[in-house]
Amino acid sequence: MDPVRNPFAPGAGQRPPELAGRDREVDAFEIVLERVSRGRPERSLVLTGLRGVGKTVLLGELRSMAVRAGWGAGKIEARPDADLRRPLSAALHRAIRDLAMRHSAPDRVDEVLGVLKAFAMRSAPDGAKLRDRWQPGIDVPVKAGRADSGDIEIDLVELFTEVAELAADVETGVAILIDEMQDLRPDDVSALCAACHELSQSRAPLVVVGAGLPHLPAVLSASKSYSERLFKYVRIGQLDRPDADFALLAPAEREDASFDTDALDALFEASSGYPYFVQAYGKAAWDAATRSPISAADVKLAAPEAEAELAVGFFGSRYERATPAEREYLRAMADITEGRDDPVPTARIAEHLARRASSLSPARDSLLKKGLVFSAQRGQIAFTVPHFGRFLLTQA
């Protein structure tokens, strides 16, 4: 099989050749766009799931849908070591530029950009010298008195209100998409929830679409109790068998190739339907095959190559971030579950390691902050990466 024509594309956030199994989420967002544009009430959206299920890809697709609908749209990736002002300012700057193309009053656009610039420049600490202040690259004068108090909760409500009013002027909306939302700082999470709450009450045409790990709803709820009703939560999981098959067959058929039934059986068993793994094993099977249709023997031949690539790029990069104490904790989880992705009681881990639970708290807390595990429910812990336990059992 010609490797140049290989349609499969495993990669972080890289859109697969066929976005299979996400029709429900795409259709739901289409309704959100239409309802908000008509002034109907609608909740912001939060996507949750393990690593490798395609949250980032889906977020990118939703952004593209918003742009095609004539909305202003901006996307950011949250980081635990950075506050929200700078990346959000850049995302909103892009969204406002989208709206400016349709707006008939340049002065009004510049006024909102001035408010955005004031908001962005508050990212510098008080007392910072002029040369140390971040310049956001917005070529309009600062509009003082709005969104520049320094209190992120007050400022975000005022900024979102200004941007939403600009969108309403041209009978459209604004979508802000936030990846890795669980990594936002607590103050920023609280401010974001407060801003979304304020806008939902006024039916302003601005929606936030967040994506993050399975514990993201708990992060939001801990910040604002009403967040349970503020967002629509959508759990993104692995593909079922028909969708996993379609993700392989549709791209292959466009290249005049196919998979036989036994090959599809083997690929689903290897990937468990996780989109990233479907792409990784599909790519390796294509490269290993000499002719179409790709067979189960080709999949068996390709499996070590796919697993080696996953061990380095998908599992290994995360494993390397863990300290020896953290690796001991992770390995204990893998031993207890026998390589499955099941949640593990923290008390069971302490028992397995013959240690006091309190002595393991630093390792557990560090793994939580690094995003390698999440609290599935009170007293339980689980891997954020599917098949990570299976990988750990292969390590010395």
From TrEMBL:
InterPro entries per UniProt: AAA_16 (IPR041664), Cyt_c-like_dom (IPR009056), P-loop_NTPase (IPR027417)
Domain Cytochrome c: 168-272
Pfam families linked to this entry: AAA_16
Keywords: Heme, Iron, Metal-binding
Region of interest called Disordered, as start-end residue ranges on this chain: 1-21
UniProt-listed PANTHER family: ATPASE DOMAIN-CONTAINING PROTEIN, DNA-BINDING PROTEIN-RELATED
Protein name: AAA family ATPase
Protein source organism: Pseudonocardia yunnanensis
